[in-house]
Amino acid sequence: MSLYCYLKEERELVPKKSRKYGLIFSFISLLLGLVFLANAFGPILVYEIRSRRFTPNFISPLEVRGDLLAVVDYSQPQTWFPTQVRQFPNPSKITHYTLSIPKLDIEGVVVQVNGKDLMKSLIQYPGTALPGQLGNTVVFGHSVLPQFFNSKDYRTIFSTLPTLEEEDEIFLNFDGVTYRYQVEKMVEVLPEDVSVLEQHYDRERLSLITCVPPGTYLRRLVVRAGLVY
Question: Which long-range contacts (CB under 8 A, 24 or more apart) does 52-57 make?
Fold first, then answer.
Protein backbone atom coordinates (compact mmCIF):
# COMPACT_ATOMS: atom_id res chain seq x y z
CA MET A 1 0.00 0.00 0.00
CA SER A 2 1.35 3.37 -0.96
CA LEU A 3 1.27 6.35 1.39
CA TYR A 4 0.94 9.87 0.09
CA CYS A 5 1.76 13.08 1.93
CA TYR A 6 0.51 16.45 0.81
CA LEU A 7 2.33 19.61 1.78
CA LYS A 8 0.56 22.95 1.66
CA GLU A 9 2.35 25.40 -0.57
CA GLU A 10 3.47 28.52 1.30
CA ARG A 11 2.83 31.64 -0.64
CA GLU A 12 4.57 34.93 0.01
CA LEU A 13 2.22 37.46 1.49
CA VAL A 14 4.32 40.23 -0.07
CA PRO A 15 6.05 39.50 -3.36
CA LYS A 16 9.82 39.92 -3.36
CA LYS A 17 9.57 42.62 -6.00
CA SER A 18 7.17 44.66 -3.85
CA ARG A 19 9.38 44.26 -0.81
CA LYS A 20 12.34 45.50 -2.84
CA TYR A 21 10.46 48.61 -3.92
CA GLY A 22 9.31 49.15 -0.33
CA LEU A 23 12.89 49.09 0.93
CA ILE A 24 14.00 51.49 -1.77
CA PHE A 25 11.12 53.85 -0.93
CA SER A 26 11.97 53.70 2.79
CA PHE A 27 15.63 54.41 2.09
CA ILE A 28 14.80 57.38 -0.14
CA SER A 29 12.36 58.73 2.48
CA LEU A 30 15.02 58.43 5.19
CA LEU A 31 17.61 60.11 3.00
CA LEU A 32 15.25 62.98 2.17
CA GLY A 33 14.44 63.38 5.86
CA LEU A 34 18.13 63.61 6.74
CA VAL A 35 18.71 66.14 3.97
CA PHE A 36 15.79 68.21 5.24
CA LEU A 37 17.11 68.16 8.82
CA ALA A 38 20.62 69.05 7.68
CA ASN A 39 19.25 71.89 5.57
CA ALA A 40 17.22 73.25 8.48
CA PHE A 41 19.60 72.79 11.40
CA GLY A 42 22.98 72.68 9.66
CA PRO A 43 23.33 76.47 9.28
CA ILE A 44 22.41 76.98 12.94
CA LEU A 45 25.02 74.45 14.09
CA VAL A 46 27.69 75.86 11.78
CA TYR A 47 26.93 79.38 12.98
CA GLU A 48 27.22 78.40 16.64
CA ILE A 49 30.49 76.50 16.12
CA ARG A 50 32.03 79.24 14.01
CA SER A 51 30.98 82.09 16.26
CA ARG A 52 32.13 80.44 19.48
CA ARG A 53 35.25 78.52 18.42
CA PHE A 54 36.55 80.38 15.38
CA THR A 55 36.22 83.94 16.59
CA PRO A 56 38.52 85.38 13.85
CA ASN A 57 35.42 85.18 11.63
CA PHE A 58 34.00 87.79 13.98
CA ILE A 59 35.62 91.14 14.52
CA SER A 60 35.42 91.08 18.31
CA PRO A 61 34.69 88.47 21.00
CA LEU A 62 31.06 87.56 21.34
CA GLU A 63 29.12 89.09 24.19
CA VAL A 64 26.80 86.18 24.99
CA ARG A 65 25.55 85.47 28.49
CA GLY A 66 22.76 82.94 27.89
CA ASP A 67 19.61 82.30 25.90
CA LEU A 68 16.08 83.65 26.02
CA LEU A 69 13.02 82.17 24.37
CA ALA A 70 9.83 84.15 23.93
CA VAL A 71 6.70 83.85 21.86
CA VAL A 72 6.09 87.36 20.56
CA ASP A 73 5.40 89.19 17.32
CA TYR A 74 8.88 89.85 15.95
CA SER A 75 7.54 91.86 13.03
CA GLN A 76 7.21 94.68 15.58
CA PRO A 77 10.61 96.30 16.31
CA GLN A 78 9.79 97.11 19.94
CA THR A 79 9.63 93.38 20.77
CA TRP A 80 13.28 92.81 19.91
CA PHE A 81 14.44 94.48 23.14
CA PRO A 82 11.46 94.07 25.48
CA THR A 83 13.10 95.78 28.48
CA GLN A 84 13.92 98.95 26.54
CA VAL A 85 11.98 102.01 27.71
CA ARG A 86 9.78 103.24 24.87
CA GLN A 87 11.53 106.00 22.96
CA PHE A 88 9.92 109.03 21.39
CA PRO A 89 10.63 109.34 17.65
CA ASN A 90 13.07 112.00 16.54
CA PRO A 91 11.23 114.77 14.68
CA SER A 92 11.97 114.44 10.97
CA LYS A 93 10.25 115.39 7.75
CA ILE A 94 12.04 112.47 6.11
CA THR A 95 9.97 109.31 6.50
CA HIS A 96 12.36 106.89 4.81
CA TYR A 97 15.78 106.52 3.21
CA THR A 98 17.74 103.71 1.54
CA LEU A 99 20.51 101.34 2.61
CA SER A 100 23.04 99.47 0.47
CA ILE A 101 25.63 96.83 1.38
CA PRO A 102 27.61 95.96 -1.78
CA LYS A 103 29.25 92.83 -0.32
CA LEU A 104 25.82 91.29 0.39
CA ASP A 105 24.22 92.42 -2.90
CA ILE A 106 21.81 94.60 -0.93
CA GLU A 107 21.08 97.68 -3.02
CA GLY A 108 18.77 100.59 -2.24
CA VAL A 109 16.46 98.85 0.22
CA VAL A 110 14.03 101.03 2.17
CA VAL A 111 14.59 102.01 5.79
CA GLN A 112 11.43 103.38 7.40
CA VAL A 113 12.09 106.07 10.00
CA ASN A 114 10.24 105.11 13.20
CA GLY A 115 8.43 102.35 11.27
CA LYS A 116 6.42 99.53 12.83
CA ASP A 117 6.41 96.58 10.39
CA LEU A 118 9.65 94.72 9.65
CA MET A 119 7.88 92.61 7.03
CA LYS A 120 7.59 95.64 4.75
CA SER A 121 10.91 97.46 5.23
CA LEU A 122 13.95 97.86 7.41
CA ILE A 123 13.17 99.95 10.48
CA GLN A 124 15.17 102.72 12.14
CA TYR A 125 14.58 102.33 15.84
CA PRO A 126 12.69 105.28 17.41
CA GLY A 127 14.80 107.75 19.36
CA THR A 128 18.08 106.92 17.60
CA ALA A 129 20.15 109.40 15.59
CA LEU A 130 19.26 110.11 11.98
CA PRO A 131 21.97 109.36 9.38
CA GLY A 132 24.76 111.93 9.47
CA GLN A 133 23.91 113.09 12.99
CA LEU A 134 26.08 112.58 16.04
CA GLY A 135 24.90 109.48 17.85
CA ASN A 136 23.94 105.93 16.93
CA THR A 137 21.67 105.23 13.95
CA VAL A 138 20.07 101.86 14.74
CA VAL A 139 18.49 99.84 11.92
CA PHE A 140 16.60 96.55 12.42
CA GLY A 141 16.07 93.86 9.79
CA HIS A 142 14.70 90.31 9.67
CA SER A 143 16.78 87.19 8.97
CA VAL A 144 16.05 83.51 8.26
CA LEU A 145 18.17 80.51 7.30
CA PRO A 146 20.84 81.87 4.91
CA GLN A 147 19.87 79.52 2.07
CA PHE A 148 16.59 81.44 1.80
CA PHE A 149 18.25 84.85 1.57
CA ASN A 150 16.64 87.21 -0.92
CA SER A 151 17.96 90.76 -1.10
CA LYS A 152 14.52 91.97 -2.25
CA ASP A 153 12.53 90.28 0.51
CA TYR A 154 12.43 92.14 3.83
CA ARG A 155 11.61 88.89 5.64
CA THR A 156 15.09 87.59 4.73
CA ILE A 157 17.03 90.80 4.10
CA PHE A 158 19.65 90.46 6.89
CA SER A 159 20.16 86.67 6.67
CA THR A 160 23.77 87.04 5.50
CA LEU A 161 24.67 89.89 7.85
CA PRO A 162 27.00 87.63 9.94
CA THR A 163 29.34 87.31 6.92
CA LEU A 164 30.36 90.97 7.06
CA GLU A 165 33.94 91.74 8.02
CA GLU A 166 35.96 94.68 9.22
CA GLU A 167 36.07 97.63 6.80
CA ASP A 168 33.20 96.34 4.67
CA GLU A 169 31.15 99.25 3.40
CA ILE A 170 27.57 100.25 4.18
CA PHE A 171 25.88 103.19 2.45
CA LEU A 172 22.88 105.21 3.62
CA ASN A 173 21.22 107.63 1.21
CA PHE A 174 19.35 110.13 3.37
CA ASP A 175 17.65 113.26 2.05
CA GLY A 176 19.75 113.27 -1.13
CA VAL A 177 23.07 112.77 0.70
CA THR A 178 25.00 109.47 0.62
CA TYR A 179 26.78 108.52 3.85
CA ARG A 180 29.53 105.89 3.75
CA TYR A 181 30.13 103.73 6.81
CA GLN A 182 32.74 101.06 7.47
CA VAL A 183 32.19 98.02 9.69
CA GLU A 184 34.25 98.21 12.88
CA LYS A 185 33.09 95.25 14.94
CA MET A 186 30.29 92.74 15.56
CA VAL A 187 28.84 91.62 18.87
CA GLU A 188 26.02 89.38 20.09
CA VAL A 189 23.77 90.37 22.97
CA LEU A 190 20.70 89.05 24.71
CA PRO A 191 17.31 90.65 24.05
CA GLU A 192 17.38 92.31 27.49
CA ASP A 193 20.73 94.01 26.82
CA VAL A 194 19.60 97.43 25.59
CA SER A 195 23.06 99.00 25.76
CA VAL A 196 23.42 98.58 21.98
CA LEU A 197 20.64 101.18 21.55
CA GLU A 198 22.39 103.84 23.62
CA GLN A 199 23.30 107.20 22.12
CA HIS A 200 26.83 108.57 22.50
CA TYR A 201 27.31 111.91 20.82
CA ASP A 202 31.08 111.91 20.29
CA ARG A 203 30.81 110.66 16.69
CA GLU A 204 28.44 109.31 14.00
CA ARG A 205 27.74 105.58 14.29
CA LEU A 206 25.53 102.99 12.60
CA SER A 207 24.26 99.76 14.15
CA LEU A 208 22.59 97.06 12.05
CA ILE A 209 20.70 94.54 14.18
CA THR A 210 19.18 91.15 13.37
CA CYS A 211 18.43 87.87 15.16
CA VAL A 212 20.82 84.92 15.48
CA PRO A 213 21.45 82.00 15.17
CA PRO A 214 19.97 82.05 11.66
CA GLY A 215 16.28 81.28 11.67
CA THR A 216 15.88 81.83 15.44
CA TYR A 217 15.17 84.74 17.79
CA LEU A 218 17.49 83.70 20.63
CA ARG A 219 20.03 86.54 20.47
CA ARG A 220 20.73 89.79 18.66
CA LEU A 221 23.66 90.29 16.29
CA VAL A 222 24.85 93.90 16.18
CA VAL A 223 27.05 95.11 13.31
CA ARG A 224 28.65 98.37 14.38
CA ALA A 225 30.01 100.77 11.78
CA GLY A 226 31.50 104.26 11.85
CA LEU A 227 30.90 107.14 9.43
CA VAL A 228 33.75 107.69 6.98
CA TYR A 229 32.23 110.62 5.08
Answer: none
- Phi, psi of 104, rounded to the nearest 5 degrees: -100, 5
Cis peptide before 126 (omega within 30 of 0): no
Indicate the burial class of 182 (C-beta count within 10 angstroms; 0-12, 13-18, 19 or more).
middle
Residue 210's DSSP bridge partners are 221
**42-56 confidence digits (pLDDT tens):** 665 555 555 544 343
**Each residue of 2-26: pLDDT tens digit?**
566 665 555 555 566 666 667 777 7
What global pTM score does this model have? 0.68
Amino acid identity at 157: I
What CATH class is the domain 63-227?
A: mainly beta
Domain boundaries, the chain: 63-227
Contact 206, 133 (CB under 8 A): no
